[in-house]
């Protein structure tokens, strides 16, 4: 899919067939994540691929907006390494860029995906650290829930002239 088409037509998909994505598809998504820009090119990300059914259930038990996870069959938890990027703002931005790349790549190969927020929301970071046994310097930023889609969603037109400012507010 052409890049602008992917950007303009991507929507969050929350209904999945239950069929798990292939290793080849997963590899495309991970490669897209790694290609994201990062401040000072520190590439502070790690990607935790969650496929184990029990683990998916555990995560959806504590994440009330990720109830679709077990049926998607795969979650990619994008984490930032504080030892690579000490500026928390940059760490979050870098990982968010990787998340968006993964979302677009998923859409590009015909899969459905949704970004499920982790940082910095309630106990989600702590719960995720515990369940994934993350070292202290690794901060979970967001999770991409991805799978074969069982819904189609219309394009949402968001262009808004009133939010564009030239040269000054
Ligand atoms: C930081 C962030 C956190 C989000 N967390 C969730 C979530 O936990 N669960 C969910 O279903 N969608 C989540 N979303 C998806 C948004 O609800 C969605 O992007 C928004 O409604 C716009 O719809 P679209 O993605 O179809 O364009 C999140 C999106 C962002 C950027």
UniProtKB/TrEMBL annotation:
<comment type="similarity">
    <text>Belongs to the nitroreductase family.</text>
</comment>
<keyword id="KW-0285">Flavoprotein</keyword>
<dbReference type="GO" id="GO:0016491">
    <property type="term" value="F:oxidoreductase activity"/>
</dbReference>
<feature type="domain" description="Nitroreductase">
    <location>
        <begin position="7"/>
        <end position="61"/>
    </location>
</feature>
<keyword id="KW-0560">Oxidoreductase</keyword>
<dbReference type="InterPro" id="IPR000415">
    <property type="entry name" value="Nitroreductase-like"/>
</dbReference>
<dbReference type="Pfam" id="PF00881">
    <property type="entry name" value="Nitroreductase"/>
</dbReference>
<keyword id="KW-0288">FMN</keyword>
<dbReference type="InterPro" id="IPR029479">
    <property type="entry name" value="Nitroreductase"/>
</dbReference>
<feature type="domain" description="Nitroreductase">
    <location>
        <begin position="65"/>
        <end position="147"/>
    </location>
</feature>
<protein>
    <submittedName>
        <fullName>Nitroreductase</fullName>
    </submittedName>
</protein>
